[in-house]
Amino acid sequence: MSREPLALIAAAWLLASCAATPTPRPSDSAPSPAATVAPVAAEAPAALAGRARAGCARRRAPDCVRLGARYAFGDGVARRPALAALLYRRGCRLGARAGCTALGWALQRGEGVPKDALSARRLFGRACDAGDGLACAHLSVMYRDGATVPQDREAARGLMARACALGHEPSCP
């Protein structure tokens, strides 16, 4: 049997499976902080964690956030949500908007820290004001649902539009 028909069948199956994949849409639950961490070169997770650890020790805010995400999800290191929250806090204090957003996410869900929706809202607001689209999306959901703020669907729509304008594609219509 020739390999050509098998290759055609495989290609058709691949195209069909890609076409059947739904386009991501904004969901009722806000995205995880992993979405805030830019991908780095294809290295082993443990090596990336080591590089982020060294950068965070040198007070590089993005590295603190990257390392926090690795501890939050156990990627190349043991899963330690409390340490992740501390690293997010450090990144936020050093000026990384993504650190503020990720810490807000942890506070909103009680991941490694006691639940504190009011502090989460403040962090989302600060990061959104600084131009973090993901933070605007989180804040939008809080306004839509009336979580720690009076329910305000108009404010929620405005925040979602801002999130989209800031490049957070899942927030776009």
Topology:
Blueprint: H1 3-19, H2 45-57, H3 61-73, H4 81-93, H5 97-109, H6 117-129, H7 133-145, H8 153-165
Tag the structure with descriptive keywords.
single chain; 173 residues; mainly alpha; Serine Threonine Protein Phosphatase 5, Tetratricopeptide repeat; 8 helices; disordered N terminus
- Uncertain runs with pLDDT below 50, 5 residues or more? 1-29
For this structure, the quaternary state is: single chain
Give the helices and strands as they follow along the chain.
HHHHHHHH
What would CATH call the homologous superfamily of the domain at 42-100?
Tetratricopeptide repeat domain
Q: How far apart are the termini?
A: 48 Å
CATH top level class name of the domain at 42-100:
Mainly Alpha
Structural class: mainly alpha
How many helix segments? 8
Percent helix, as a range, is: 55-70%
**Radius of gyration, taken over Cα atoms and rounded to an integer in Å:** 19 Å
Kindly estimate the percentage of residues that lie in beta strands according to DSSP: under 5%
CATH third-tier fold name of the domain at 42-100: Serine Threonine Protein Phosphatase 5, Tetratricopeptide repeat
What general outline do the C-alpha atoms trace?
Answer: globular
Biggest sheet details:
none
In round numbers, the mean pLDDT is: 82
Counting DSSP E segments of at least 2 residues, the number of strands comes to 0
CATH architecture of the domain at 42-100, by name, is Alpha Horseshoe
